[in-house]
Fold:
Amino acid sequence: MINFLRPVAHGLLAATLLLSACALPRVLKQAETGRTVVARPAPLTASGEAVPFEVVARVPALHLRKGVAYELLLRYRYEHGLREDTLGRIAFTVGNYVYDDENKGQLKATQKFSLPNTPSRNPGELLARAQVREVKKNGRVLRAPADVRVARGITDPARLVTREDTVLALLPEQASNTMSGTRVLPFFFDEGQWFIRGYLGTNVQALEDLIDANQQTKQVLIIAGHSPDSTDAHNRLLASKRVRMLLYYYKQRVKNYSYLNKTENIRFDTLAYTRRWDTFLSKVTTSALKADQIDSVVSIINDTRGTFEEKEKALHRLTYFDYLEQYIYPVLRFGTVAVTYTAPKRYDSEVYLLAKKIVAKQLEADALTPEELRYSAALTPLLAEKQRIYETAAANTASWEAFHNLGVVLLQRAEKEPTDKIRRAYLRRAAVNFTLAAHRNPTAEFFYHAATAYHRAGDRLEALQNYDYAIKLGGAAPLLRKIFSDRAALEIEVGQPDEALRSLQYAGPSYQNALNRALILVGREGYEPALEQYRAAQALRPTAAAPVYGMAVVAARQQNEAAVGTFLKQAVALDRRYAQRAVEDLEFQEYAQGKVFREALR
Structure:
């Protein structure tokens, strides 16, 4: 059987395809006639690490055709058109649009989008390209020949936040260059002798060095004793002779080698220990003898019935007397010279040179006191040397003063670095050292210093935590107000304006706070309250250009071109740098080609 219906069916299909193909250009033309696309906020505004915005599109309802959809494809182009982000589409399909109450005969579709907030994305432009497509699988698509610019560039409130850095100064380092003390030098004599021996077990060389150092000597105490053995004990004058020998030797050395001291200006005190058991017992009780042996010796000595000679003979009868004779008796044949002195003043040059040797590990750190080592950092103008000295002081003493001043020096080095990467590295190291100082001396001020360094380095989470620690520790009212001010600035930067407003409640009135509060209000379209804050900032600093420039931004938002020109002219007169800023500012893009704008920047 011949199918007479097949040619008819083919004809209907061809007609349908032809009508559909003809419908696409017609729908595109009808939709594009009277179509508007706007982005809110305008210009696009960053909030922390993201740029959230919504796009509102309006098209005539007349364009609607069954089976055909009108769409806007959105993308953001940047880096001189070399890169772009595909954001998505707004489709005028059932459920995605509403009839616009304000504009009869128009459909409205709204959709939210977000971009990453990176410096490379500004300048850039948000583009939309229209297309119509058949709503079916593998349906045809017809695109508009050109893009439509929806918005240009991104404004970032974080770059507009006002934060007046607190100058963090080095803690003053102080070290007394006047040294004083008492040097105790023991001497030992041969059995039955009172002459000073110059071999092992003496401090003759040390005593000579002490005298020859010409330290201002105030007092010298000389003591000598003897052992209880028969040779020493039977010479009643032996201890006194040993005292006199040490006294004679000391005075002769002063006369011959000291130009600063004179014997008549030194107070000499002498004491001879004769037939005394207290020193002997102290040595026995700290010896290696067994407990019962020690008890036996103590019993002999403490027996009130025996004489000195009888007790000495009783010791000889002990089975372990050889220990007493070898290890106890020799140290009882002693002499002691205790010299109380004031050392001559140490010059700064000497302190500095010693510090350099300590840093170079040519000397031990105890060649200087911790205070002197830190003080030496103040003796050099070179930041690199200061850094090494404080690093050495921190490593050897772990004092909060060393950590804090090391942090300050690292901040100062960061300020001199031309590259952001190295600058941030110094700032982070400074923040770590401020944190170490704060944990060793937990005060609001030192945690605030850590927060400041993290804030400058861009480590926002760490900065917020340290601001919080500082506030919780409490402190003087001016300090806490400044901490709240800086925390509010950081909260604006991370896209937390509500939290920033709460912080500003405790920050009190200031130039910084007035500008930052105005910045939040402008972002929320509170233009009149923002103007009040700018006027408050201007009253605090009449010669500052920033408040007047802020008023120009408000005037631009209110579409007041005359006020824009007036305020910009005032701001540029106060600070010429604001002319270039105004040229690049997206807030004035509608007026940039006008006469009023150009006249204001002259």
Notes: The first strand starts at residue 36 and ends at 40. The two ends are 91 Å apart (CA to CA). The chain has a mean pLDDT of 87. The first helix runs from residue 5 to 32.
